[in-house]
Design brief:
By secondary structure, the protein is α/β, with parallel strands linked by helices. The protein has helices spanning about 1-20, 90-105, 120-125, 130-135, 155-160, 170-185, 190-200, 215, 230-235, 275-285, 355-380, 390-395, 400-405, 405-410, and strands at about 35-45, 55-60, 80-90, 105-110, 115, 145-150, 205-210, 220, 225, 260-265, 270-275, 290-300, 305-320, 330-345, 415-425. A hairpin with a 6-residue loop joins strand 1 (about 35-45) and strand 2 (about 55-60). Helix 10 (about 275-285) packs across helix 11. The longest helix has 28 residues, at about 355-380.
Length: about 450
């Protein structure tokens, strides 16, 4: 009897599964993958045609993509799994509709990972006019990354993108963004982050800068990068350049011509300033989105030698603002840092109780000086990308009172003091550097 009952239940479920399978055919959106054309990233530039834009699409060719990703090729070349198409139109949606007349498939943006804006467009009219379509169209994810070309057009940037290791474009975009999040040389920004900060009161948003390295660009031929000779490279390098200190390209040969370093400061959607890689790390400490990074400092005892510290933010900065007093407002900032020694180039015995304080004092001095210099730079522009107003907001009872606060003007006239507290935690894998025996 029990066996018969079990058989009936089993037969019922099998019949139910058979009936349900009849209603689960085809794609959920009634479109087969073979009828779709996926756009992986997109660029927007100011066109030579008045009041029009060059919209660049990188379209995937599914049959030529390696689904495994992360597969290095034998040469520094981009596999022919993507095609670039440029359309000049009055807006992004018009460019999308015009492109559909020649592709042969319906454009699909659900795999779009990055939108790049050209320097001229960002600095003149701004990027905010083009964000509305990206917000309204359901296919655009708010987790799409947004970049700005530091020294040129988005089209040139996309033409010169030749990843070396990660040849799958979407994974390359994810990888470079995560690297910047860890190194601190730029702040990866999603579409959601930019829109939220543009709509927020008393804060200016930032967008990461990406550019083409001119030395590596000269090494590109037939969509391949062939490193130049040592003599040619030495002729090309900037002899007075320290990588990341300024907005200039750092000295490099080989690899992907593209590099992401620095951030653009936007006010009401328009780019008003660009910050270098060093300034971007200081911005991260003040904005409290910094993770960690490798910092290089001058040795306090040996000239022309450096020491390296893996620098962490130990806890949020302590910011005290006396905003109730008449101008100038006083702002006191105290940064809390810790780190590990990664290199002592001079081979001095700095790993000792008395020398530790020497290195810590050097780090505290340099970080505080750079932070104060960056703040004064932003004060001159009446811009606050650090969102210091968040420390005032908690002291107000009503939102209307906070909105009415003329913060950026008061911030530009504020008296600011910056201090840093740094503690060395670990010396690395060795206590003391190499000891060279003295010759008799």
């Amino acid at each position: 009897m029990r066996k018969s009952s079990t058989s009936r239940v089993r037969l019922f479920f099998l019949s139910l599964l058979l009936v349900l399978s009849l209603f689960n055919t085809s794609c959920w959106d009634r479109r087969e993958l073979e009828t779709l054309s996926f756009v992986l990233n997109m660029g927007v530039d100011q066109s030579v045609v008045e009041n029009q834009y060059d919209v660049v699409f990188r379209i995937a060719i599914p049959g030529q993509l390696d689904p495994r990703g992360g597969k290095a090729s034998g040469t520094d070349t981009m596999p022919d799994g993507h095609k670039l198409v440029t359309v000049t139109a009055r807006s992004i949606p018009e460019a999308v509709s015009l492109l559909g007349t020649s592709i042969g498939r319906k454009l699909d943006f659900r795999h779009l990972r990055a939108v790049v804006f050209g320097e001229e467009l960002a600095a003149t009219e701004g990027i905010h006019y083009h964000l509305d379509y990206l917000e309204r169209e359901p296919q655009f994810r708010r987790t799409t990354y947004v970049w700005i070309n530091k020294f040129g057009t988005a089209r040139d940037l996309m033409l010169n993108n030749l990843p070396v290791i990660e040849t799958f474009m979407t994974r390359y975009i994810e990888g470079i963004s995560e690297s910047m999040r860890e190194l601190g040389y730029a702040r990866p920004m999603l579409l959601h982050d930019i829109v939220a900060e543009i709509e927020e009161h008393h804060v200016d948003t930032v967008v990461p800068l990406i550019c083409i390295n001119p030395i590596v660009e000269k090494e590109v031929e037939n969509n391949q990068v062939t490193p130049m000779s040592t003599e040619e490279y030495h002729d090309e390098v900037n002899k007075d350049l320290i990588g990341g200190e300024t907005l200039d390209h750092f000295n490099r040969s080989g690899g992907n011509p593209l590099e992401m370093i620095g951030i653009a400061v936007l006010q009401e959607g328009v780019m008003i300033e660009q910050l270098s890689g060093w300034e971007s790390r200081i911005y991260g400490l003040l904005r409290d989105n910094y993770r960690y990074g490798l910092w290089i400092f001058d040795d306090p005892e040996v000239e022309n030698r450096t020491f390296a510290v893996e620098l962490y933010r130990s806890r949020p900065p302590n910011v005290t603002i006396d905003w109730n007093k008449e101008d100038p407002v006083t702002i006191d900032i105290h940064l809390f840092l810790e780190g590990n020694i990664r290199d002592i180039q001079s081979l001095e015995k700095h790993v000792s109780p008395d020398k530790y304080t020497l290195l810590e004092a050097e780090v505290e001095k340099i970080v505080a000086e750079q932070a104060l210099e960056l703040i004064r730079k932003m004060q001159a522009l009446e811009s606050d990308p650090f969102y210091f107003a968040r420390f005032v907001r908690t002291q107000m009872l009503y939102k209307q009172e906070y909105i009415a606060l003329d913060w950026k003007k008061r911030f530009s006239q504020a008296e600011v003091t910056v201090s840093a507290e740094f503690n060395l935690r670990r010396p690395g894998m060795v206590l003391q550097p190499i000891i060279i025996p003295e010759q008799e």
